[in-house]
Design goal:
The complex is a heterodimer of chains A (300) and B (718). Chain A has 300 residues and is of the alpha/beta class. Chain A has nine helices and eleven strands. Chain A has two domains: 253 residues, Rossmann fold (3-Layer(aba) Sandwich), CATH 3.40.50; 32 residues, no CATH class. In chain A, a hairpin with a 5-residue loop joins strand 9 and strand 10. The radius of gyration of chain A is 22 Å and the shape is elongated. Chain B contains 16 helices and 37 strands. Chain B has an eight-stranded mixed beta sheet with strand order 20-19-21-22-28-27-26-24. Chain B has a five-stranded mixed beta sheet with strand order 8-7-4-9-10, sandwiched between helices. A five-stranded mixed beta sheet of chain B has the order 12-18-17-14-15. The radius of gyration of chain B is 38 Å and the shape is elongated. The chains are: A alpha/beta (300), B alpha/beta (718). Chains A and B meet through strand 9, strand 10 and helix 8 of A and strand 2 and helix 2 of B.
Chain lengths: 300, 718
């Protein structure tokens, strides 16, 4: 199988075939699709009646109802609109980490998810865009619903990780300027930055009315610190070397990490950001299924 | 009490394993040099964790390291079996509240057995001393001797350990047997007295388990009483017998064959040996000395577990107090290798024959001294007035033949005579007023001289004597001499005797079972009561012609019977000078001048001034606990000294302290709480202070702690 397509493993995609990515919020789009628009208009499909109030457009009055009831009701319609999905992929150096028992680095795992999502979005004829970032926006591909765009996206996704650190706060501020149209922004990152900075960055996007979903990708080794022997930890992203007895500091480390994760989770919850922690030993299909299911349930 | 412990190890070379305590440190250092390297993305959390918990982590690391080193060190110490001595408690550590321990130390004379220059009592003292030394401060002790009677040396529990040890070291052999039952009574009292003050009480008995003390007997319930102590106190036994039964030979008895000893008359002395040896002893030497001068030696063959008697003929040439001493060769138990016999020797045996009517006592006097050349017995015949008029103490024996009755003064004087060791023989007859006898001398009277009550006169035909299988010493010489005539004596009348006193014995009976001669020890003397007459002058005048009471006086058996009566009656003259250990020494002084003072010279040559009761001219001494000769001396040289021989109890059976056989300890194991029973005394300390167990216990606790802490500090988390 072509290397670029390994993240599009047919088995994984087959399992996702029945799932539909439904944005939690219906965003305004150009292409009528399968996604409900929050805006009632006069487009295609009747939705419901509403009692007339002064100032309403009388073009939408339902005269048949008036004839029957002698009351003024307006017709409301559900507009079909398209989805714009921005995939923000973290390509900082920390994403290159692969634990001793993990088959994929965090970046490789993230690439698989990003590719799969992109494919799904394009399959539903929605538009998908891609942003790669570390301490700044590295690549930006504007959203498009052209199926031919997929290869371009995959090619960019597969570029080597940078040697820079993650800086979500400043990067997302920069990104917010770029994403002019509202849509779903799927952030795939380990979020290894100050929790406050990360949340600030995410809030920037929320202020722009984007529907945010965050997949935090962590290696199981990062969650458990499973080393027994004395270890020198060579820090990525310019961090120093640390010699430590993992057995001695395991509990403290996990407490620190847990505190960080809790801050991120709570911050996302407060800002109505869909958050999910994905360890890289979790099967891709399970991770995607769980994530998409939760998106579906929230959109209803 | 020493302030610091004296440590020693049963297997000190195993302490080398202690170097393994360095292993955890070495492993720690080595592992630091064996770091593996890995890239790490989540460094920010690692840094934060280390910064925040560095100090705690370091302490935890050192704590674990210290515990692991301590585990290996303790293991090495436990292997080496540590023994600590001379420390109050264990390192001053007190696991329990203060305890009360009753130390019971056997002081019976089998504990004097000596082997390897140490006695069993020394062993017991050593064990008890160690116990006190090992005790924690505040632990209290009482001290009781296992003896008969037991002595409570420390009644109020004492936490002054030095004083307790001093009392233990002051214990001496009591030269008697021990009474476990009596001692248990004392222990029960001591436990009860302090039960509310001490939660834990112990009873430590140190004994050689000799059979005379520990053997079961039907009348002794010591076993059940000991078991009953168990819920109240932990029982421990320290065996000092070293699990061996040594051979021993003892002088069981020394006695004169005659009741009285007179100058110039040879007297036979029996020295009986008892063997408690496993093998037969050939030509065992027995030596007899008189007043410190050898009177000869004999060699006897002694079977294992048997007895043999050596007979010595001794003639005393001077009247006065003499001392015989029998000796056998030394063995491990020296105290029973000598016996003494004090013999008061007179010029003649003086017998006063008082008659109620003429001729009533003449037959007795004639039987005692049938010819003019004296045989050592000098009888005097007198009327009943002699009771008041003469000094009765000058006589060894007094016959009262057919005396009708006695006045209260006469009765009192006769009582004094007997209590001072005189021999009194009542021979009845036709003049005797039974009621008067009973009133003045009977059991209901003040004097209580008679060994039985007098009743009606029996005269219903001819009666003979029944020797009662010759069991009594009076008739024993007649055994095998049936033709002596004792059994053919015709007796037609006698006074029926009944209500025999509890301590009296029937020496000779009539064929119909009525007592004929009854005897009883009274005071230091002896009283005999003969139910019929000793003269043909006593007759039954109701018949025609008058019938004599008996033909006894004319019968061939009469002289030997009278001689035996005198011997028995006067035997207490010797007995009152010969006592057993623990008996009260006393006498009444007949010739003391008012100004003279007396001292008692004990066997260990201590001179004790004696307090003499001026009213009664008597003295007593109740501390005769050492066998040997006690001499009463007066500063007035005209007053002759008195000698008293004090011996160990007579050995009459195997259940003697001289028998060094111990009871089987297994039989006692169920009664005691600890395994010390089967351990040699030397290991007592090790058992009582099981440091290796403490080390193992601590090690176990550290292992658990290490597991717990290691899990808590992160090893178990995955």
């Amino acid at each position: 199988m072509d290397n670029s397509l390994k993240s599009l493993d047919p088995q994984t995609l087959a399992k996702l075939q029945g799932l539909q990515l439904r944005a939690r919020r219906i965003v305004e789009g150009f292409v009528a699709g399968l996604h409900r628009s929050p805006y009632r208009g006069f487009s295609v499909e009747f939705a419901e009646h509403r009692e007339y109030v002064p100032g309403d457009d009388i073009r939408h009055l339902d005269w048949k109802v008036f004839g029957r009831t002698d009351k003024f009701y307006l017709k409301q319609y559900e507009d079909e609109t398209n989805l714009i999905c921005y995939i923000a992929l973290d390509v900082s150096e920390s994403m290159a980490y692969r634990g001793p028992d993990s088959p994929l680095s965090k970046l490789e795992y993230a690439q698989c998810i990003a590719a799969t999502v992109a494919w799904l979005v394009l399959q539903s004829q929605d538009a998908v865009g891609l942003v790669t970032f570390d301490d700044q926006v590295r690549e930006y591909v504007a959203p498009s619903n052209s199926p031919t765009r997929l290869n371009e996206l995959l090619s960019i996704m597969e570029s080597k990780p940078s040697s820079n650190k993650t800086a979500i706060g400043s990067t997302f501020q920069q990104l917010a300027q770029k994403l002019s149209k509202r849509g779903v922004v799927l952030v795939i990152s380990d979020l290894f930055d100050e929790a406050k900075s990360v949340l600030n960055g995410l809030r920037q996007l929320r202020h722009r009315q984007h529907d945010l979903a965050v997949l935090q990708i962590l290696d199981p080794a990062e969650l458990d610190l499973p080393f027994d022997r004395p270890t020198v930890f060579r820090g990525l992203e310019g961090m120093p070397k640390i010699a430590a007895q993992p057995r001695a500091i395991r509990t403290a480390y996990k407490a620190e990490l847990d505190s960080f994760l809790q801050q991120i989770k709570r911050g996302c919850l407060d800002n109505e950001i869909d958050y999910r922690l994905v360890p890289t030993d979790q099967p891709l299909d399970v991770a995607l299924s769980a994530f998409l299911s939760s998106r579906q349930s929230r959109s209803r | 009490m020493p302030l610091f412990a004296i440590w020693s190890f049963a297997s000190p070379w195993l302490l080398l394993w202690g170097v393994t305590a360095a292993l955890p440190v070495l492993i720690h250092l080595w592992s630091r040099r064996r770091f593996v390297e890995t890239t790490w993305a989540a460094t920010q959390f690692l840094l934060a964790a280390i910064r925040r918990h560095q100090r705690r982590i370091q302490i935890e690391q050192w704590l674990l390291l210290a515990i692991r080193a301590a585990i290996l060190l303790l293991l090495a110490i436990a292997f080496a079996e540590p023994i600590v001595s001379g420390l109050p408690g264990i390192g001053g550590w007190r696991p329990q509240p203060p305890t009360h321990t009753i130390l019971v130390i056997d002081t019976s004379y089998s504990m004097a057995y000596e082997a390897s220059e140490t006695t069993r009592l020394s062993d017991a003292r050593l064990q008890a001393t160690k116990l006190v030394e090992y005790a924690a401060p505040g632990d209290a002790f009482s001290l009781v001797t296992l003896a008969d009677p037991p002595e409570v040396i420390i009644r109020e529990p004492s936490a002054n350990h030095s004083a307790v040890i001093a009392e233990i070291n002051g214990l001496r052999i009591t030269n008697r047997r021990a009474s476990l039952t009596a001692t248990l009574s004392q222990i029960e009292q001591l436990l009860s007295a302090v039960e509310d003050r001490f939660e834990h009480q112990h009873v430590h008995i140190f004994s050689d388990l000799s059979k005379s003390t520990w053997d079961d007997s039907p009348t002794d319930n010591w076993r059940s009483r000991l078991a009953a102590l168990s819920p109240r106190a932990a029982l421990h036994l320290g065996d000092t017998s070293a699990n061996i039964t040594p051979d021993n030979t003892a002088i069981a008895r020394i006695a004169l064959q005659s009741g009285t000893v007179v100058v110039g008359a040879p007297v036979l002395v029996d020295v009986e040996l008892a063997s408690f040896a496993k093998n037969k002893q050939l030509r065992k030497r027995v030596e007899l000395s008189v007043d410190g001068t050898s009177a000869g030696e004999q060699f006897v063959d002694l079977e294992s577990g048997a007895r043999a008697t050596a007979n010595f003929a001794v003639t005393f040439n001077v009247a006065g107090e003499h001392v015989l001493k029998a000796t056998i060769g030394d063995d491990g138990l020296k105290v029973d290798n000598d016996r003494w016999l004090s013999v008061p020797v007179r010029d003649t045996t003086r017998v006063l024959c008082i008659q109620g009517r003429p001729h009533a006592a003449e037959y007795v006097a004639f039987a005692l001294s049938p010819s003019a050349d004296t045989n050592g017995i000098h009888p005097e015949v007198a009327s009943e007035h002699a009771i008041i008029e003469r000094t009765l103490h000058d006589y060894d024996c007094i016959f009262l033949c057919n005396v009708a009755h006695f006045t209260p003064d006469e009765a009192q004087k006769l009582l004094d005579y007997v209590e001072q060791g005189g021999g009194l023989v009542f021979v009845l007859g036709d003049l005797v007023n039974s009621e008067g006898y009973n009133e003045q001398l009977g059991a209901e009277s003040l004097t209580k001289l008679l060994p039985a009550s007098l009743n009606e006169t029996v005269g219903d035909g001819r009666h003979g004597f029944n020797p009662l299988e010759y069991r009594h010493p009076l008739t024993l010489p007649f055994r095998g001499h049936e033709r002596s005539g004792l059994l053919t004596v015709p007796i037609w009348r006698y006074i029926r005797l009944d209500r025999i006193n509890e301590n009296a014995s029937v020496a000779l009976a009539f064929e119909n079972g009525d007592p004929a001669i009854v005897e009883e020890a009274v005071g230091q003397g002896r009283v005999l009561l003969v139910a019929t007459a000793a003269s043909p002058e006593s007759v039954d005048r109701t018949t025609e012609p008058a019938t004599p009471w008996t033909a006894l006086a004319s019968w061939p058996s009469f002289p030997p019977l009278i001689h035996e009566i005198v011997r028995l009656a006067a035997s207490n003259r010797v007995a009152q000078r010969n006592m057993f250990v623990g008996d009260l020494l006393s006498s009444r002084l007949q010739e003391r001048s008012a100004s003279s003072t007396a001292t008692l010279l004990t066997p260990d040559n201590n001179e004790l001034p004696l307090h003499i009761n001026d009213e009664e001219d008597s003295w007593t001494y109740d501390q005769a606990n050492q066998p040997g000769v006690y001499r009463l001396r007066f500063d007035d040289e005209n007053i002759p000294q008195q000698t008293f021989s004090v011996n160990l109890e007579a050995i009459t059976s195997d259940a003697s302290e001289s028998n060094l056989e111990s009871v089987l300890r297994d039989e006692l194991s169920e009664l005691f709480d600890d395994a010390q029973l089967n351990a040699p005394p030397q290991s007592f300390a090790e058992q009582d202070v099981p440091l290796f167990r403490i080390a193992l216990g601590t090690l176990l606790a550290l292992l658990v702690a290490e597991t717990f802490l290691a899990a808590r500090f992160g090893r178990a988390s995955t």
